[in-house]
Design brief:
Length: 439
Amino acid sequence: MTMLVLAISYQVQAQEIIITGKVIDQSSREVVPFANIGIKGHAIGTVSNENGEFEFHFPEKHLNDSLFVSCIGYGNYGTAVSEIKDRQAFNIYLTSKEYVLEAVVVRPDDWTAEEIIEKAIKKIPENYITGASLMDGFYREYFKENDKYVAFAEAAVSIYDEAGYEYEKRKAQEAIKINQLRVSDICNEGDYVLYIDINYALRSNLIRNQYFWKKFAKRGKLELQTLAMDSISYYDDHMVYCLSYKTLSKRKGEYSGRIFVRTSDFGVVRVEINASNLLKGREINGAPQESKAVLTYKEYKGKMYLGYINASHDVEYHLAGKKYTLSFNSELLINDVKTERFKPLMANDRIQEVSIFYQPRYRTYQPAFWKDYNLFASSEANAQIIADLEARRPLEKQFRANGKLKAEFQRFPLTAPKPVDASNNDSVPSSRLVPRFGK
């Protein structure tokens, strides 16, 4: 499915500028998914969804700045914000950019795929934010039961990272605070709850958590099957190596995907992960059978940081003689980052490591905050989500009713339930199947 792409401002602004539209391939007229859209020179932006649609909210003070769009395989696009006439239907056309080998550039055979990855790892402290930072973002969870959407939640979040991308053996997990939240009813029939919390989604950030994933690979006895350079492409005026990989483990399953690395400084700009747990003897009831994740990185003031995560699980669960086919999706979009003059999140500000469906202390739904965010309702890709969830009552009524829940009256536990299969908690990204808390 598609994501709801929002750029949320947490500070009160006199007025916001809102631009909506599509990103389209100039030649084929096909939509362009996952294009980065932002204000040139500033760490604010959004991402086009799988239909190429976007909805970009930003402060009016950027009226005289330039809108900037980039995507792997395309040339950059830029235009003055003030020159955009129709901000409610603004289509952006990108031109594909092919790699042309020149005598002065790095040639594909100058580096092996293994050497490129080794260089990329070594260059992490130079290419990425190594100090503390505070990021504003948008997080979304939704899942299907037997091909029907049964739950949906969105939150505006702040994420405090005190460690950054410096290599450390014991790197602290990022601290997360929910600023705004809207939650649907939970309509699944089976007696379970499936979720991925934001902490676990962030754990899949391989570039930041390289020590954790090295231990994961060693513990799981992952063996590299293939690592190859497939091609060279363009991204944000940089040439990038396009690498493919495949690993295999009798304990952890099969991992494959692609990695995109800039030729200029070996900065990783995108990682794609496909994980399969369907090896003989590995079919664990309630554990993810197939998982996918896409991570992209942005640059601000010469340093890169996580910009976007899209993750999904396919799970099969058997209970009381009935089979449940489940599909769980989560997305995190970082739309602003601060590396100085910010207040760190304190311990009592941080959410617990459970799904945002079970953060009742933060359930104060504010319709005024969401009234100008219309892409979710208008996108064709979300039509089935809305139709399934509104079979009982309108989503707006669900948001309002669930927003009235208070911590002192709710029945949900304030601590994370014990997973059914603790041995699978470090998959990419992790999920848990636990007893249902109540209808």
